[in-house]
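User: Predict structure, ligand D-xylonic acid.
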Amino acid sequence: FTRTKKLIVALAAISACSVAGLAHAQEVKTRIIRFGYGLNDDSVQGRAARYLAEELGKISGGKLKMRTYGSANLGSDEQMQAALVGGAQEMMVGSTAPLATMVKEFGVYDLPFLFNDDKEADAVLDGPFGEKLLKMLDDKGLVGLVYWENGFRNVTNSKRPIVKAEDLDGIKLRVMQNKIALGVFGALGANAVPMPFSELFTALETHTVDGQENPVTTIQSSKFYEVQPYLSMTRHVYTPWVLMASKKWWNTLSPDEQKLIRQAAASSRDFERKDSRADSAKAMGVLKESGMKINVVSPEEMQRLREKSQPVVDKYTQELGPDLVKQLQEEINKARKG
Ligand code: TK8
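Assistant: Predicted complex:
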């Protein structure tokens, strides 16, 4: 065997592989993918869901057909999670908060006052920390693909503007369904009530609860301004959404199909974040016009809210694992400096 012969054999092997690779690239079947989300069609989620469906159709030559279902028509986040695990639904986007009942680590995203801005959030979520959490879903029957932005949450209610920390006292406030969210608002003085998002508008309208907290994009698209006179810019926590697939279903896909879905998911993330940020400014305009009374909480009172929540943060840091929270803090600090 001369050197040249060896080279020829090697080249032949490589080209044989790439021919096989090409044949393999055809392994995309016609499939219907049901994709559910909680907000309505005319929301950041709705627009990004349509974008995702279109993108996936485009790059799969029309074979991967995604049908999108908004307004929790396939169920609340909690119900859809269960449907994905059982294999009854293929894909969804939903909050991290209800995931914490399956993978407790997802509760870190409900710890208040972590991120200062969306740049820090992007860096941490798309970096090793965010990835590590998505991987933890694997054992639970879910495939975590990417994070979309939900955003910084602000308090609305029908009683009074939150100007001082004490103004939250006794306000019956709907919170997302996990014990950290519940604990934080309890510590802040509110009468915290966990409830799925899909029941929230009616609960606000009928005064079953006095208030809730969500990003301004959602307060606008879900028309909470129709039933909530006060909006206080607390920005107390940044929460993401996770784009997920059913693991049961995912395992039936060819590697090519999985790759196309991952690719479309990544594009949808970029689209959604850009749209969310542009929409925040627009939403503020709509909320002002609607007559909502909007106040910014002073830095001094924000500091007091922070102090009031600290004991609960400490408690849950122990439960979540001090190392995990430390790693998150380090990633945030890195992003802050960078
Ligand atoms: C929509 C929810 C929503 C979340 C909440 O299904 O529950 O308040 O902010 O976006 O995931």
